[in-house]
Design a protein that fits this description.
Shape: elongated
Largest sheet: none
GO molecular function: transmembrane transporter activity
Order of helices and strands: HHHHHH
Low-confidence stretches: none
Keywords: Membrane, Transmembrane, Transmembrane helix, Transport
Mean pLDDT: 79
Membrane topology: Multi-pass membrane protein
InterPro entries: MFS_trans_sf (IPR036259)
Subcellular location: Membrane
Number of domains: 1
Length: about 100
């Protein structure tokens, strides 16, 4: 349950940051905001198939916590972004999030 709540907050992180000053701080222009959310969602969708397949090979007891740690590292990296191009790594954050929250 906690993982799902964090996931729903995380899916809105770029929107909240954009409204709170990311646009000015990182000089986001044009369609970059749409690219950020699209890449995150693409990573989430692409990660669905390997996430299901990996659960048959690696026990969830190992897989889910390791993906949570990877997701945490990705969030920390995104918080230190100094320009808009660094936000594009959110595709990996979306994939890690998909692995960490199996259906």
């Amino acid at each position: 349950m906690l993982s799902y709540m964090i996931k729903s907050l995380d899916q809105k992180n770029v929107s909240n940051a954009y409204v709170s000053g990311m646009k000015q701080a990182l000089h986001v222009d044009g369609n970059e905001y749409n690219y950020f959310t699209t890449l995150f969602n693409c990573g989430y969708l692409v990660g669905s198939i390997p996430a299901q397949m990996s659960l048959s090979l690696v026990p969830p007891l190992i897989m889910i916590p390791s993906c949570e740690v990877f997701w945490t590292i990705m969030v920390m990296l995104l918080s230190r972004a100094s320009s808009a191009k660094y936000i594009y790594i959110s595709v990996f954050q979306g994939m890690a999030e998909r692995f960490a929250t199996p259906p």
